[in-house]
Design brief:
The protein has helices at 4-29, 77-83, 142-146, 153-166, 183-189; strands spanning 54-61, 67-72, 107-110, 135-136, 193-194. By secondary structure, it is α/β, with parallel strands linked by helices. Among the domains are: 55-113; 133-195, Orthogonal Bundle (DNA polymerase, domain 1). The termini are far apart.
Length: 195
């Protein structure tokens, strides 16, 4: 130990200097004291709900084989119509959003084309010249909804926005979740609508 002590005294300052240099390098490597600059805002992570593996949908109206069908969780209305044998010759597919995603328990009502002069055909929507039958919440445009008594442009827009953000209407009862639909209006609209 006596032999080691003089050596440590002579080279101890070298080890001390080396320790200080290493500490400064380590401090700079982790960004000590340096201004990191502006911090980017955290990106917003949007989590989509997991799609169910299978959904059951009821396809009715102007299709060849109406019924309840099991579909993949990411299926669209067009696939449900095809599964039901395709549209009949008198189907009016222009009144149906074929690209809309399906939700479990949804009813896809394929409307029948109404011919001019047919009983109940009436005039254009909102003309008050006749009934066109129930309006499909899954496919109606804002103009179709405005043709209903008690539904103005603002409410029609909210209904379409709710449908787009929630993937459609599985039942008419979900209309109650749209802002501005009270119990009285809900009961007045219920017989005029289908999902």
């Amino acid at each position: 130990m006596d032999r080691l002590a003089p050596w440590l005294r002579r080279s101890g300052w070298l080890y001390g200097l080396l320790a200080v240099v290493l500490a400064v390098l380590a401090w700079r490597a982790v960004g000590g004291g340096a201004d990191p600059g502006p911090v980017a805002p955290a990106s917003r992570v949007v989590r989509r709900p997991a799609l169910p593996a299978m959904t059951l949908v009821h396809v009715a109206g102007a299709v060849r084989k109406p019924g309840v069908y099991r579909m993949g969780g990411d299926s669209r209305v067009i696939q449900a119509v095809r599964m039901a044998g395709g549209p009949t010759g008198d189907a009016d597919l222009s009144r149906l959003n074929l690209a809309a995603p399906l939700i479990d328990g949804q009813q896809v009502m394929v409307p029948v084309r109404i011919r001019a002069g047919a009983p109940g055909a009436g005039g254009p929507p909102g003309s008050g010249t006749g009934a066109r039958g129930p309006v499909s919440l899954s496919s109606a445009t804002a103009a179709d909804l405005e043709a209903l008594d008690g539904v103005g442009p603002a409410l029609a827009g909210r209904i379409v926005a709710w449908r787009d953000s929630h993937g459609g209407f599985a039942s008419v009862d979900q209309l109650d979740e749209v802002p501005g639909i009270g119990p009285a209006r809900m009961e007045a609209l219920r017989p005029l609508l289908v999902p």
